[in-house]
Amino acid sequence: MTVTTPAGFTAAGVACGLKSSGALDLALVVNTGPSDAAAAVFTSNRAQANPIIWSRQAIGDGRARAIVLNSGGANCFTGHPGFQTTHATAEAVAEHLQLGAGEVLVCSTGLIGEQLDRERLLAGVASASDALAPDGGQDAARAIMTTDSVPKTAECRDAAGWAIGGIAKGAGMLAPGLATMLVVITTDADLDSASLDRSLRAATRVTFDRLDSDGCMSTNDQVTLMASGASGVAPDEQDFTAALTEVCMQLALQLQSDAEGASHDIHIRVTGAASDDDAVEVGRSVARNNLFKAAVFGNDPNWGRVLAAIGTTSAEFDPYDVDVTMNGVRVCTAGGPDRPRDEVDLTPRILHLDIDLKVGAHEALILTNDLTHDYVHENSAYSS
Amino acid sequence: MTVTTPAGFTAAGVACGLKSSGALDLALVVNTGPSDAAAAVFTSNRAQANPIIWSRQAIGDGRARAIVLNSGGANCFTGHPGFQTTHATAEAVAEHLQLGAGEVLVCSTGLIGEQLDRERLLAGVASASDALAPDGGQDAARAIMTTDSVPKTAECRDAAGWAIGGIAKGAGMLAPGLATMLVVITTDADLDSASLDRSLRAATRVTFDRLDSDGCMSTNDQVTLMASGASGVAPDEQDFTAALTEVCMQLALQLQSDAEGASHDIHIRVTGAASDDDAVEVGRSVARNNLFKAAVFGNDPNWGRVLAAIGTTSAEFDPYDVDVTMNGVRVCTAGGPDRPRDEVDLTPRILHLDIDLKVGAHEALILTNDLTHDYVHENSAYSS
Questions:
Q1: Chain A contacts of B307, Cβ < 8 Å?
Q2: Is residue A169 a known part of a binding site?
Q3: In CA terms, which of A98, A328, B190, B274 is 20 to 30 Å from A206?
């Protein structure tokens, strides 16, 4: 259940020495057609890595034959030499696969501000090209891992004969616009690039864009969707979007549960909002409140910190008419204490936090994690 | 060097049992005149504690004779009974001091969402009224402490014969609008409430509002300035504002160095900005980036995380023409690597982080702290 689940794709994951551990660090996914329609969404961070700058250009025509992804270095803030490395990577893939460089997308992930070893990277492209296989998706999923503890994969098969498969990596710097990650999704459905683009934007908006693990927006986010058309089936766009959203949500939940150092997955459901934007703003303000997140780590149902976080938003609500429920226990009614906080059991991995703003009919689900000793530890020692 | 440094003030700090430790938990500061001019600024959090709601009303006429502050409970999200407690506290102070309740400001700090013990609080008001003394400022400074490890006090004496004194508390939930804190500042200068208000807003804008320890905005912030006029001197407003700014900065720096669990005080100086707002926005985005803050805790000069944080702002700048210097070592020039990161020594308590946006002549200083195991520990165990 990976990018090689749909027909018309090959993939590989190899080790080329970018990671000092010797682990897999270069992935290649190739669309063997007949179609080469593709779409991608990118980080909204204004500081963008070299591969993002390259891929934005390359996807401009809605077509891509291959995507090459490396871990072991973000190739961001590496100046002109860094961009040349990205360009050379795309050229090398193109040469090995007899494509144009403009048909090759590039992604990188790892430490910012260090040059990638170009020689190793290009040698990796050569071995990955040789290793391409119709069942290579699992290796590709492993090769894009950084601090991830497990590879993330998902799939969805439609009775009409088409399928969607995906791989993802991401454990830190998870915040919307996009949630910070690399994702490759493939399908053998036959859809043009405009449809793919609409479906991808619709699906990411309510999945990856709602994942906000630590509020830190990456410079290297990219979610790419490639369609081979190999099933010969052209699905209804709405059906396809629904299936794609399901695959994206599966991957987003896997990213959440593998977030660096996290001991809780927090599902913040905001209801009763005056608009979708309000619901999302309220959810995010809670998801980014370090005091609340540290309290959850301590299994402390500190709902006052939830209300203090909501109070910083511009959403429509009355601070003294908000209800807060944690794991089914209504701890706050109309902005005042309700059930005693010690009735809330926060020992399960998942915390369901429900916030009812009581002013409208809109809602949103925001996914986040708690703030733990392990988060601090992992992120205080990352580059050293 | 406290609120009783200027002439015309008495103060007291007593223990009334709001803190289970038995430590001082109720402070009273009284302006004995002749003037009763006052000004105050409040949290911009829309979720406001009961004492904030009270004090906003009471200060409406620019006059205050007394301020009573309790630790051991925030009296926020405690509904109508909570507001009655605040009201009763002001009434009790008024009765003991033969004032009107509208001349009494109230502040509370501690856990949100729990009722204060009104009986203990009112008994505390009685003992504090009895204990009022011209040298009671130190006790008052101690009585407002929560997780503070030391009391915070400051003063400034002018050669013309007037003085300013202040006390502050705040260690967590430190973020602008205001930085989360209770502050009482007194002066024996003779200034009307409109002048006090202008001076206070000018001083807090560049001091407390630039302190952003953990990005979490409180529900209980209040900075109050009371003028007795007892020196008989009416200073020039500009001179007074400069002295007041100095006192506020002294207190802000004390709050920063006592921030919960912090092991570094980070001074983020943003220069070359197109506007003051841009400089502040950039500084705050870095101050709120958990990945950067965790890296500083690990003595890791991870400047890539600085640039990634700047990229999330709307400030005018070119991501590939930003310079970053840490403790005097230029690690990034024009958005690319400069000096090796291992030349930076992050073992001192203070980290001077200089960011040059190179597009204008505006600048700002933002004060923050690192993200540490102790921060997580203190905030995961606060209410339990």
A1: 47, 77, 112-113, 219
A2: yes
A3: A328
The one-letter code for the residue type at B362 is H
Is A207 annotated in a binding site? The answer is no
CB-based contact A309 B216, cutoff 8 Å: yes
Give the ipTM.
Answer: 0.73
Q: Is B375 on the interface with A (CB under 8 A)?
A: yes
Say yes or no: do domains B9-257 and B265-380 share a fold.
Answer: no
Give the domain B9-257 fold.
Answer: L-amino peptidase D-ALA esterase/amidase (3.60.70)
When mean pLDDT is compared across A29-33, A370-374, B46-50, B241-245, the lowest value belongs to B46-50
B382/A300 CB distance under 8 A: yes
Whether residue A220 contacts residue A52, with contact meaning beta carbons closer than 8 Å, is answered with yes
B147 a catalytic residue? no
Asked if A304's CB is within 8 angstroms of B74's CB, the reply is yes
Q: Does A371 touch chain B (CB under 8 A)?
A: yes
Asked if pLDDT for residue B14 goes beyond 70, the answer is: yes
Q: Can you give the pLDDT at residue B81?
A: 93
Q: Which CATH superfamily is domain B265-380 in?
A: ArgJ beta chain, C-terminal domain (3.10.20.340)
Whether the CB of A340 is below 8 Å from some CB of chain B: the reply is no
Catalytic residue among A180, A187, A207, A245: A180
Across the strands, what pairs with A226? A38, A186
Lookup result for tokens 């506020």 = B248
Find residue A182's DSSP bridge partners: A169, A222
pLDDT higher than threshold 80 for residue B172: no
From the CA of B359, how many Å to the nearest CA of chain A?
16
- For tokens 């030499």, what's the residue? A81
Paired tokens of B281 = 């926005």
The span from the first CA to the last CA of chain B, in angstroms, equals 35
A224 φ, ψ to 5°? -115, 140
Please tell me the predicted confidence (pLDDT) of residue B276.
93
User: Considering only residues 180 to 219 of chain B, which have any Cβ-Cβ distance to chain A shorter than 8 Å?
Assistant: 214-219
Instruction: Please indicate if any CB of chain B lies within 8 Å of the CB of A290.
Output: yes
What is the bridge-based pairing of β-strands B9-14 and B26-31?
Answer: antiparallel
Does the structure show a pLDDT above 90 at B87? yes
Query: How high is the pLDDT of residue A206?
Result: 85
B180 annotated binding-site participant:
yes
- Looking at residues A126-138, what average pLDDT do you find? 97
Beta strands (DSSP E) in B119-228 are: 152-157, 163-169, 182-187, 222-227
CA separation for the pair A201, A39 (Å, rounded): 9
